[in-house]
Amino acid sequence: MTARWREITAGEIVSALQGARISGSRKHVFRGLSTDSRQISQGYLFWALKGEKYDGHDFALKAVENGASGLVLERDCPSSILREEISVIYVQDTLKALGDLAAWWRAEHHVAVIAVTGSAGKTTTKEMTASILQLSNETLKSKGNFNNLIGVPLTLLSLDDRHKAAVLEIAMNRPGEIGRLTEIADPSIGVITNVGKAHLEGVGDLKGVARAKVELLEKISPDALVVLNGDDQLLMEAASPFNRKKVTFGLGPKNDLRADKVQNMGPKGLSFELQYGEKTVAVKLNVPGIQNLFNALAASAVAFCLDKPAEQIAEGLRLFRGIQGRFTVSELAGGATLVDDTYNANPLSLNAAMQSLKSFVQEKGKLIVGLGEMLELGEETKRAHFEAGSLVAESGASYFLAFGDHAQEMVRGAAEKGFPPEKTFVATSHSEMAEKIRELIARDDVVFLKGSRLTGLDKVVDLLKN
């Protein structure tokens, strides 16, 4: 069998999905796969998934009308679809079957697969790693938020003969997900960037996060390498029971790979000396933030594990230009600086961002902080938002704007640390926050915005820019 679109047949997919049955021809060749009936092209295989708000089975007929020549279903489909030119493959669970096919597909392609997880920095580390690797080889990487039990299999199912490496981001909302994704991806190298308060609703507490992250070590092949943040004590403790080949990164002297002579240039980025064994190379990052230093170290560790030259690593990191909404810097009309960190938020990433901001503010400028809700924190929600306000007070900010259901908790946290009440503002809409910031900003000021994706502070960014 061959794992190539435009060559793989319905019969071969049935063989890969042990226990599946088929109605219609086994000889149909599929041009591709989609889980969205609206994106089906002629000759595609439509994979019907069930979600909280939709059921792909309800769109099977629409998929056929749009050109699908095959369907993967859990239940019998309408008799109007059952004809010889349509291959219908039946499985017990379409989500599990998607992962099973992806695992088979990955095994058919002899490439280096890198799986990146962690409470913060996953996406940036993934992008930095790909930036390095693609300088010498065709590299597949996860798109956007393709980091779950649907996105990871779909990414793997786009592997073809061109690719020599694949860099995947893997995430979780509850225990067992990282373990399952590790089984599907079978990584050559697994990376854990850190452990922090994120997705607590699914795992309970910080130790639950750590246990969920080290599912990567539990399920990864004994022959694989694992790259860990050696400065993260909780992570290292959680990883210690697993007998895996480990490479550590960080600033501490005991790490296998570390940064020395770090120079923080504020909005212009960072420079440092990268040390790995007897190898040393000067690195210039064109993205700011101490958090990006750690992301760069993780990506560099992967590249060294793949025997990439130090010069290629430095060049790949230099070329990386950041990701919109993840601590990206731009200039507003009037000469103020906007730091857009609105893609997501949790206590760990917020703390790192606030530490990095200290080097941004010029002598004549002031810092204006706008924070939105941090989601999925469970019983830690109130405390986390209170502590977020405390961080703002300790950052030297001149003004603080809060938005969301727990805005008052953030304001109370700031007040507890002595932040002046007259310099805090609770916004009830994106436009209100943007308007208040416009009233406050002047030349040389820094505006920092951060919140979980669903709070929509990116709308404030757009309003300020326009």
Give a short synopsis of this structure.
By secondary structure, this protein is α/β, with parallel strands linked by helices. The protein is built from 17 helices and 20 strands.
Shape designation: globular
Which fold name corresponds to the CATH topology of the largest domain? UDP-N-acetylmuramoyl-L-alanine:D-glutamate ligase
Query: Uncertain regions: pLDDT < 50 for 5+ in a row?
Result: none
Q: How much of the polypeptide forms β-strand, as a percent range?
A: 15-25%
Count of alpha/pi helices: 17
Query: How would you classify the quaternary structure?
Result: single chain
Task: Determine Rg (CA atoms, Å).
Answer: 24 Å
Query: What is the assigned CATH homologous superfamily of the largest domain?
Result: Mur-like, catalytic domain
Bin the helical content: 25-40%
Structural class: alpha/beta
Major β-sheet strand ordering: 7-8-6-9-10-11-12-13-14
How many extended strands?
A: 20
End-to-end C-alpha gap? 54 Å
Total discrete domains: 3
Major sheet attributes: 9 strands, mixed
CATH class of the largest domain reads Alpha Beta
Q: Assign the CATH architecture of the largest domain.
A: 3-Layer(aba) Sandwich
Determine the mean pLDDT: 94
